[in-house]
Amino acid sequence: MKERSSLQVTLHVWYALFMREAMARMSGDRFGWTWMLLEPVAHIMLMIAVREFMGRIRFIPGADFIPYLIVGLMGFFIFRDAATRSMSAINANSGLFAYRQLHPVDTVIVRAALEGVLKTIVFMLLVVGAVFIGLNIVPMDPLRVIIAWLTLWLLGLGFGLVFSIAVTLVQESEKIIRMMMFPLYFLSGVIIPVQLMPHSVQQVLIYNPILHALESMRYGFFPAYRSIHGIELMYPMALSLGMILLGLMLQVRLKTKLMAQ
After folding, report:
1. What is the pTM of this model?
2. CA nearest neighbour of 88 among 114, 71, 112, 121
3. Rounded distance between C-alpha atoms, residue 37 and residue 123, angstroms
């Protein structure tokens, strides 16, 4: 029997983990598939209701409100879920480390990959559904949209690789990290257009890499859309690669401690 290469072993491990995570995600909750689609829809309906009640955000330059909201929500969700779900992957799969082919970093990468696949499917369904009811959400620059979407996922993966170490070694840190996602939801231009905020606030938010990726993705959907000065996709791309490299180095350095938890 031909001996498998290291790459083949790794791919087989990832495939087995992916299928295991997918089955657990879908069968662990009777509303698994349904909730993945209903969550963004519920957020959209809530924000529309808030908008109508407050009557403040009536016009967004270059984009309709609902398509603007769909793009922002799904872009933030792929970052959030890739980061928060992958950070608990090591603890959730600790019983599998008896197999020498499996390393802690594998569980983080595979869980982030699963979230990326699921969120991509949900995003495509939402876009098709929105087009079906007559909303203008067809991407004018699909390549830009894809690159921005992948950048948000890579950013989530990078943070997941780093957060997973903190959560595994100090489990209480998971609650703090999840709490941080709530203000980040409002500080990333998901709901409130950043160009409508005061200039002093814009100067602070410009350091948020998620904002850059979300606004870049909106540029790909809405050609006439205009955001604040300084939006650049290279910034979150560089940060995501830096976080991934840092996370991988920490995973290798602390592998023994992570497996012993």
Report:
1. 0.91
2. 112
3. 9
